[in-house]
């Protein structure tokens, strides 16, 4: 169960690195603008906000990655705490997006389902 949970949360972390790349590095590119449904003017106007938001996503991914490495190194307590904190925050952010912007339900579910499954599997594995 531990390995499955860590794989699911690692997938979520990889997705958040990709989101970081779009929000912080390629926000004004035609492809990223199309992904987020933004005009060139909207992307320029929100560039600073997206840069900041992208780094939040990166930091969550780093928490999960460092936690996973620590679990692999035998430091289960602190490693799992980091993984659960990072993945749990990803789930919470996805829920905020889902509730605040129902028209972005697909994006919210993409953001929250993998880490939610990972957290669920990890917690069930820890309690079993």
Describe the protein.
This protein is mainly alpha-helical. The longest helix has 26 residues.
Task: Break the fold down into its secondary structure elements and pairings.
Blueprint: H1 2-25, H2 30-36, H3 40-45, H4 47-72, H5 76-100, H6 105-127
Q: What characteristics describe this protein?
A:
single chain; 128 residues; 6 helices; elongated
Shape descriptor reads: elongated
The helix content is over 70%
Number of domains: 1
Broad structural category:
mainly alpha
Number of distinct beta strands: 0
Mean pLDDT, rounded to whole units? 96
What's this model, at a glance?
This protein has helices at residues 2-25, 30-36, 40-45, 47-72, 76-100, 105-127. The protein is mainly α and 128 residues long. The chain has one domain (2-127).
